[in-house]
Automatic annotation (TrEMBL):
It comes from the Bacteria. It comes from Sinorhizobium numidicum. SUPFAM superfamilies: L-aspartase-like. Pfam families: Lyase_aromatic. Gene3D superfamilies: Fumarase/aspartase (Central domain), Fumarase/aspartase (N-terminal domain). This is Histidine ammonia-lyase.
Amino acid sequence: MAETITIDGPLTWRDIAAVAEGTRLSLSEPARRRISDARRIVDALVKRGVRGYGINTGVGALCDVVIGREDQQALSRNIIMSHACGVGETLARIEARAVMAAQIANFAHGYSGVRLETVEALLALLNADIIPLVPSRGSVGYLTHAAAIGLVLIGHGSAMNGTEKLGGAEALTRIGLKPLRLEAKEGLSLVNGTPCATGLASLALARTERLFGWADAAAAMTYENLGSQANAFAEGPLALRRSPGLEAVGRTLRTWLAESPMLAETAGARTQDPLSLRAVPQVHGAARDAFDQIAEIVNRELSSVTDNPAVSGSPGAPEVHSQAHAVGAALGLAMDSLAVVAAEVAAISERRVDRLVNPLVSSLPAFLAGDSGVSSGFMIAQYTAAALVAENRRLAAPASLDGGITSALQEDILTHATPAAWKALSILDNLERILAIELLASAQAYDLQPQSRGRAARTDALYGRIRGAISTYADDRPMNEDFERMRALMRGMPP
């Protein structure tokens, strides 16, 4: 990971995810010029009295109320205050950093008109890792999340510096700044656009990509324990179906299972294996294909101007454009799709867990318990996985279709992009837990195999890493503690 990412052209979702994880962010000189040039255009619009939404008018249904120059600073400040309506638990540090990075990237396009010092203050907070506390709920699009960040810039709200909670003014003092006095348009720009959704979407993509690797690893371990069909993932037959994702998963599975003594011993015992085993390339591969399409949409959003209004032209001929670029329909649809993708990968993982623990379909001890009857083994772990799959099914309902009407019919269609990204992240949390259960169940199944059956080199190495951190389960401790250990292991290393 680079120590610093410099904004010159558009950032990608990988850039945003890297900054969220702690990489520093900086502005190139061309980006600084773009920001400053756009500000001069806003100043010209104000001086000439050209009507511009949120510059010299009210917002929402108050868009036709003209605001005099003497009240435009108050308008910007009041927008931050009145829009800070978020409730509930706050975003995690990494999530808030992702939103801040996406905000800065949006301003750096040079069509928003915020002052360079405002962007630099936001950047300084980010790089000092002094992160505003952003309530996670209460947004139909973007306003409340972004307002919580804007509060800190004007000396209100709260921020975290490590484990220390700071008031907004104190947070600014830590980076050598005083609370900002916002100028015309800045209040609106600070709460506007799709950075909340693009930031969270970038994180969701990063987590999905990581978990896809673990899903393939878990499937390989389960297949080795239960599979019997010869060459189930052979390259030639898989290539009959056209799918880059399928081909990639097939290659991965062949690598994981290369020269497996266990599979050599059981090959051909069944004509074909159940779908949760033999359809892994088709299901995981389709998920990867969808992921690539979703990632392209998020990158397009990051390369787009999503402020409203946008400004262009020059100080001599300033232009202001009231478009609907802040509406995140594309992101809402994309994150709804990602939610379904993650839920599908979780669902097939749970089915594989059931096949590992179910004595009706495996030759392993019931529920992977060494002393069946006295010990329940992984019986209830499968219940937990099933419950999380059911929760995913509920969460996967499309947020983008929720609709709603706000601001006295002025905003009479809502696409819920930020909530869509938030629930995708919730599904990914459940996917991680389900995969942790499958990995532990597969390791337990290896423990119960006849000693003569050897594992493939790569699955054996992963089994060794798991057992190096988590011992065989014997009903001797709360099982959910093992789940958390496995999740920590998954986050700390690639499969």
